[in-house]
Amino acid sequence: MRVKTVLTLFLLIAGVPLAADGPALQRRDSDELKQKIAAINARGAAPASGSMRTTVTEQEVNAYLAFEAVPSLPQGVVEPSVSILDGNRVTGRAVVDLDRVRQERNPVNLLDPVRYLRGRLMVKATGFVRASNGVARFELESADVAGVPIPKFVLQQIVGYYSRSQERPAGISLDDPFTMPAGIKTLEIDTGRAVIVQ
Prior knowledge:
Radius of gyration: 17 Å
Largest sheet: 6 strands, antiparallel
Distance between the termini: 15 Å
Low-confidence stretches: 1-6, 11-21
Order of helices and strands: HHEHEEHEEEHEEE
Shape: globular
Number of helices: 5
């Protein structure tokens, strides 16, 4: 799995997300991340020789999402962004077409919250990224749709729908750990940046 695919998966796992207030996104930041991704992939393909650390900034990730990732995002997911917080926490947000999720599920129970998902709304999730020994896991802290808190199972319905593939017909489970690509051993996450350790 390529690193840019993992970035997209990371956003989906993190709640899929963007357009936060902050500095204007610049193409040079996106280009910088592209170069880092190429170096990470090259390093992963080479025989291991010591540890290498690559710092990725929140600004670079959001610029990459704005300028490069659009073609690889699922149809119905737009304006993704990420906030890298302290203590291994991240927030992901995106405008998501919730009608697709509701129609796929076709809820009949009046108490099913998915029944009330309508239109294109901002979906946001915050949680902890735990990564070590080449494996990462996302632990959800909170999620909301247009500012209204939602339970984990509703977020799972959204993430599952938009992450479906031939290999994973039910999509990604929020609880499943995933193997990091390119020989990445761990991630160190702190305010505004993440350090990728290979």
